Protein 1
Amino acid sequence: MSSAAPDHPSTDPARIGPEPGLPLIRQNIALQQNSLPPPENNGKRLLNGGGVGFSVQSLAHMNYVEIPSRLGSPSIESLESRSRQRKWPISYGAVSSLALTCDALAILLIGNLSGYLYSWYAITLSDGALHYVGSSGMVAALFVCVMKAQDLYDPSELLNFKTQIIRTVATWFSVFLFLSGAAFALKVGAEFSRIAISTFALLGLVSLISQRLFYKWLLRRGLAKSKFAGRTAVLITDEISAGSETLVPTLLKHSFRLERRFVLPTNDNDHPDIESFTARIADYVRGTDIDEVILGINADRWSDLSRLLSGLRLLPLPVSLVPVGAAADILKRPTRILGDSICVELHHGPLRPFERGIKRTIDLCIAMAGLTLLIPLLLAVALIIKLDSPGPVLFRQTRCGFNGRKFRIFKFRTMSVMEDGPSICQAATNDARLTGVGAWLRRTSIDELPQLFNVLAGTMSLVGPRPHALAHDNQFAKLVGKYAFRHHVKPGLTGWAQVNGHRGPTPTADDVQRRVELDLWYIDNWSLRLDISIIARTFIEVFRGRNAY
């Protein structure tokens, strides 16, 4: 950081840190004085750094930036010190292109190497090996295109190693399945060796996963040490806006070089002198090597912002807005296009359409397979119930499902009563209402198997919060404030609460509270792996027989 005094007297209120001995970014300068011509650009920086700019198109993805807080975060002085260190010859934004290129080159190299090694091993001419050049190129092109379409090369996504592994494996095998089907349809599969293709698939996947470890290390180290090369920028902030002061450490961390910081005049007067303010900035920037102008201004001052932007259009530089205040929260949320309008999703459902589709597909497959395999058992149980006691085989009761929709649940009848009214007594140990085979059916959970028909009908899912009788729903909703949140997903044959020992009746308010907590945790943390785990643990829980009566 240069400490040389400028040729002109230090009277420019827009300049950060003109006075010796004061931290550059910690001075709050009011812009109420006349500006002076910009100092001669002699290659020295008031604040060194590096990084990548945030364009207007990427404002919604600012949530991945780790903004230092006042407590327990690097100080601005330490960030400035890091910014003076030697930089890598790559910017933060260029990591995306680097990762895409490395993936493509690795796939091409491994694909060709697998083909040539097999050709050498099989002692054949290299004409056959030439097929692997084209196939490797197709695999590389398809893979990087699909990954790019999912935004998986964005630096924020490359830091999410778990998501990277899952999506990389899924995309890799999907590409191979697609090309295998194409080769079969075109009758060219005989020209490729299964050994070479298998080697290509295995080594390629290992290489891609290893590269994701490298990308994660590169980004973490580059951000922590401010190693990325970056753009030179001028920062314009609104001091009255909450969050504007965090922009400086954020930009430094992402390796911007901040030449100066300007503070937008306040609205003390009805008409702040925006034109004069803009002219100062233009005079300073013109003739320098500044790459970008960054605005950190509250959207509440949109009229002033529009006037400022109108003046800045005179400069041949990109102008980026990093929203602060309420606008920042809004733009972090998912958006979609509705004609000429933009729709912001303020609250999303527990499961997105793709996730609901996966869950429904699994429900249908397992329910149909289960009913097909269990037909002999279901018929035998129906016959035993009919011979054991008078009454219908199936017990039907109204329950509350997804979004509060009522449906009729099916169970094998285990009691001598068919209660479905405003007052229902929960089952208890040695309940006198149980039939001869009812206790056994409930202990083994065989009485729940007819709910596979509910799963097929779409009123229930295999996994989800267990539905209660309407009388109990009304009672429990008064005990637990968030009880209705259980209806954000379809009820299930089994659930997270059941495999964690909360199966059967809920005689106390604490039992209801704990079950609801577990159900809500499941809704908030749903995943396909979690559903499979719950289904597997359900069989263990049935054999244990906890609270089954």
Protein 2
Amino acid sequence: MNTINSFHVEQIGDATVVRLTNSDFKDTVINQQFCQSLLQHIEATNPSRLIISMGEVEALTSDTITALLRARAQVLHLNGSMELCEVGSDVMEVLKLLDLPGKVFPVHKNEKNAVRSSGF
């Protein structure tokens, strides 16, 4: 398992699982580093399925959501898919306000379900 700034990466079958390790993404510098590192990782590895595990995340900002949307766009550009899992209730409320679950991001209860799924 590789550790990159605010996340760990593990390959499980065809799925690249990115486990976010920061609980609070309110800091601008953390968000910028997260976005840059995630996009660099996607570019370097070209994942066919990217699963973002958000179990540790308690708070995020529009910058975090923008980073996730940019990552999704990059993965889709590379003909891949991106999914979320283990999204806490507070974070899910924010995502629902933006109408992202299901329409933009498939959301799974846990990592096991996400890995077993076939994306959209």
Protein 3
Amino acid sequence: MIYFLIGSSTHTTVFKHRDVQLLITVAEMLGHNLDRKHRAMREADVRLSTGLKLPTSCSEINTKFKINISQCQNILMKYSKKSKGKIRVQVQLFHGGDELCEAVSTPLIITTGANANRPDGPIPGYEKDTKKKKKKNDKNDGDNDATGETKEDGDGDGGGSDGKSKSEKEDNGRLPEGLKLIKKPGAYDFDIGQTIELDFRVKNIPAAALLCITLWEGKGESKPRGWAGMRLFGYDRIMAHGEHELKLCPYTVNVNPSSTTIDGSRLRQRGGVVSTVRLAFDSSMPSDIKYNDDTPIEDKELDGPDRPLDTPQYVHDDFKPTLAEYNVVKSRLSQIARKDPLYRLTREDKNLLWQFREHIMTNDTLLPKLLRSVDWGNRAMVQEGYRVMYAWEQPRPIVALTMLNDHFPDPKVRGYASLCLERMRDETLSQYILQLTQTLKHEPFHDSGLARFLLRRAIRNTRLLGHQLFWSLKAEMHDPLVSDRYGVLLDMYRRNCGAHRGELGHQLFLMRQLQNASDIVKPMKQKDRKKMLKERLDYVNQQLRDVDVFQLPLDPHMVSTGIVVEKSRVMGSKQAPIWLTFENALDPEHPHVVMFKAGDDLRQDQLTLQVIHVMDTLWQAEGFDFRINDYKCVSTGWEQGMLEIVQNAATVAMIIEDGASKRTGYTGAKLARQAAKDAFYKKTCIADWLLEQAGSFDPDMWRGAYGTVSFLVMLLLLFFLSSSTFLSRWSYVYSSFTCT
């Protein structure tokens, strides 16, 4: 085992690594960036030489956190004489999704009047259901639709509003429960003028703390009017001060303190109206408060008179348990270590992990759970958590992946987790690019340890990792919440990827032309599609004639010299996908046959195929080869992508029909009717076909494989149906698969 001591005269950090190469990347860890430290030291020298004082340390501010809410503007709501447009502002501090303190609200405030801005058309709004309304709806027998819309008797205006409401419903899909469409909303201003004091001291505010402000209509919490948030510490670790104007996220977006962005201007309401809230931080505090987490941690016992008074209740007084006491709870700690990453630790579990932290440092799977046990609202406990994290047995890369979800917003923890991924080989890392791309959404800033890690490894291996990272980022550019961040990363990669930039340019041109062709032929009749598709594909070939070879987005190893127009066609399904045959530059006798799809979200297909591929890898590691060949699939944009065609494959319909034919001997219409019955009532059609294809394989093994695949598919379907934020939880799915 090799130990490294890195630090300055005031602070030394102990790093324990098995691989000497990891020392190079230690300097890039967020929170321990040596360049940042040197820059801070130079700035301190300049300040001292010019007579300026050093920034105030956050740990020196012992006052409670205060904030002044001055005004709210353009609050979208339907004015009611009974409620008189009363709202209240609620303020709370969060660390990720965990509350740091109790929420504090202002009194009810009456509106100062309607704003000149007015949304164009109906907007979704919350309305409390009452028994009277239900009876009235039953009595009217359908006069009001399911969304709670009310009739309007205007000359031409009513009809126009109804038309807008229908289109609104189509745009929004299924509205959340309790949500209706407000036909004549207004934008109102409110003079708040209230100072809110939270029961939380400034010195205990963590580096990743988030200030969350929510507007509620009335006394209850059934009618949100919007929410906003801001990070208290910037990239330079200076605490926010002075006056700020926050853009409110629409109340159709659930309050999520661990959200990718907290800028509501990216989620504009219907009609372009953006609600805002103006606030000001406590003017009595210094304007240069800096978060200082690099202060030395002294080796002293935290019991007795030296123990902090605000230590959380679930931590007992005994901080130094004996080995005999550890042996008593050893079995329970082993059970906690075997729990999957989605397991919610109880208060007793957190207490147990924190008490016996010195005895379990060799179990890397317990490090994420220990960090979940830290009270991030207690500065002394956070400092101790940092010390323990660096002294812990370095977690394996598969364990470090679980430290990158939204439960770990602290920059230093996320930087250390990114460091641990350095030991992962390129082939293994390529299996998790999709998850790591989604995990970038949880980073507090564009520049992070994970972003640097992905860019560095992608530039080092452009053919494998760079290709995947580029299209994974490109597929998310339609999302206004992450388009800025992913755009920066794409630009950084293109500037430094060398010759791969030209290859990506050819792929982007190809995808744009295929999208244009799909947009043109999709609304046309079937008989006219073939001619138009031929014209568009001939144009693509003409534009690519100066290019010797180009890669397909599906796989950089799929190299082509052009499209075989005669063998390409438009499929007859609803989304009219395009069947394409590309000339194979490496093996002309075996062309690349793919399908371009526009209108379907292929990211779900990618996830399913990726999970099956990883499961096959795990099965083969245990000696089970089920002959699984997963086809390639890539999402290249919003509801756009490419699929590999599996030629000479048996479809489900063919399998069922073939089984019915062998069993009954029917043909023609009788066979079709029997196959339809088997599809509904015979549960072993696929299993029988798999056993037949297995040949000399052990049937018991194939039944076990079939049951495993069925369970996997069922688990995925349950996850899709139960999670509204499906893509943001990819990392959780993989953590549960790989760690259990």
Protein 4
Amino acid sequence: MRISNIGHAILHTPNKNLHLQNVLHVPSANKNLVSIHRLTSDNNTYVEFHPHHFFIKDRATKKTIHQGRCEGGLYPLRPQEVGAHHHKQACGVSRPSTWIWHSRLGHASFPVVERVIRNNLLPRSTSHHVESVCDSCQKAKSHRFPYSSSENKSCAPLDLIHSDVWGPAPISVGNYTYYVSFIDDYSRYMWIYLLKHKSEVFHVFKNFQSHVERKYTRKIIRMQTDWGGEYERLNSFFNQLGIAHRVSCPHTHQQNGRAERKHRHIVEVGLSLLAQASMPLKFWDQAFLTATYLINILPSRVLDNQTLVELLLKEKPHYNSLRVFGCACWPNLRPYNTKKLSFRSTRCVFLGYNSLHKGFKCLDPTTGRIYISRDVVFDEEVFPFASMHSNVGARLRNEISLLPVNIAPSCSGGVDCHVPFITNPAGSSDHIKTQENDEVQEVHEIPNEQATDPAGASDPVTNPRGDPPIPSAPVSEVVGASPGSPRGGTGSPSSSSSATPRLSSSTGSSVAASGSSTSELSAAASDEAEPEQPATRPHT
């Protein structure tokens, strides 16, 4: 039986009104039934039943409050007459409010409460409902509000610059852990600067400001950043220059969404480049710089399929010089050779583009040296790292030649500002002058930990006859021969896969680090090699 309402009723008697609490309204019931237990407990009375009548008496005074007759084996409860008129029975019904149903239904949302009441014809108070906030719901269900799209649009370059720091990441081959990005709101053009510490942001921004304001003959008007510690120091600097600084709320990176989305774009493109080339993740800095360069010259759907370079610089990008990142390449190294029989090139890995020179960056994975040259032959379907040991490059960052700190700007991202921290190691010719007589040296793959750093592998010892030793692993690199060796300079390499005018692999790491140390190592190597030379060596 369905209960439609719950209320209360009053039974009028000459001496005392009897209250009937929690009366259940059941439309399908044919009789009105009274619970004796509830009647006596609610009114502090008791009932006497006799064969033909009954009495309701007060428990305190023992006076009769109501009496009636037995009819058909039942005891009907009717209001007694007072004079010539009957008291009209007044019944009141209390209906639960929407708030009561909201609490009964476990603090469900009000649209759900309304649907439950409507679909199940539940009783509800018709009084005016005043909207208010449920404290319990706020304590238990507080959440962020949705973010609306920004309608603000910049009218000119440098009106608004978005900036954010990405990281930390595993230490890269260039010893970098972070990068800071600057995005022009008008053109979506971006620059990134590699960082070793977050504290470098202040110095990097001043370099960035000098570069863009001089190039575009405009001033930076506004900056949009988060309130990270690296930008707190910049805030006072912005105030001195009159640059408006807009800061996102704490733990609300969505308000700096343009910079966050650019981070995602750079990381996705950079990881795609590394994955295709099978390169270790320690090369993320080179991949991210190349990714930024490529993003700036690609059409953007947000800009009606215009390129970022085209919108900012008013010029068409050039795609003819693009090459596949991480592919095999052979730079022309003949200008750096001092011996006529030195190999003219060696197989390297393409690492991207350079802003200081109009050329390509080529990494020799056996020594960790980076060559910068415009005369490079590419094989864009071959990736040298794909056939190397999975741990190759673990210590390669220690072998890379870097520019001096005072002339090494670590900016990148633009068509004109990309990968400035690597220089041509051949520019230091001290070690070339100390090169020994031409002698074929073979570099073998070293298992386990030594295989992670081919440049750190020691030179195999040749036998007294001058024959190359039996390799313990497949030959991976051959160093060029120079005339005047104990074998007369006529030895042929056992593998022509790569060669370079450099010292043997045992001194490769020192060559990349310092020319002076190379000279000492070369001299030492020469002294050690003397006793093994045949006594009948011809004089030259």
